Recover the amino acids of this structure.
């Protein structure tokens, strides 16, 4: 470091790269990153424990059905009623709308 003066006569000190690197406290940065990692791992483990506890409560609240219900055959719901000819239905709807629009009734 050698002191110099700038254009206004003020003292000016040039810093070497070695001095600038000392401004960063690597120990503090390392401890901060390690703390964040540890906190994240602890939070994840707590969430897994909470999930296991909640799933256990849900299973206890929803008992298995009796064997008679499980042995009964299941009936399938009725099939969907699809349009057999959608083009014809659409033509009919358009004709009805045209009739309403082109008459007074």
């Amino acid at each position: 470091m050698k002191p110099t003066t700038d254009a206004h006569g003020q003292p000016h000190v040039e810093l070497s790269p070695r001095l600038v690197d000392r401004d960063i406290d690597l120990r503090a940065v390392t401890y901060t990153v390690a703390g964040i990692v540890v906190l994240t791992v602890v939070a994840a483990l707590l969430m897994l424990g909470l999930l296991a506890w909640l799933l256990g409560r849900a299973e206890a609240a929803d008992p298995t059905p009796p064997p008679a219900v499980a042995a009964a055959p299941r009936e399938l719901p009725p099939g969907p009623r699809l349009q057999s000819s959608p083009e014809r239905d659409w033509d009919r709807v358009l004709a009805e709308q045209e009739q309403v629009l082109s008459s007074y009734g």
User: Anything to note?
Assistant: The mean pLDDT is 83. The radius of gyration is 39 Å.
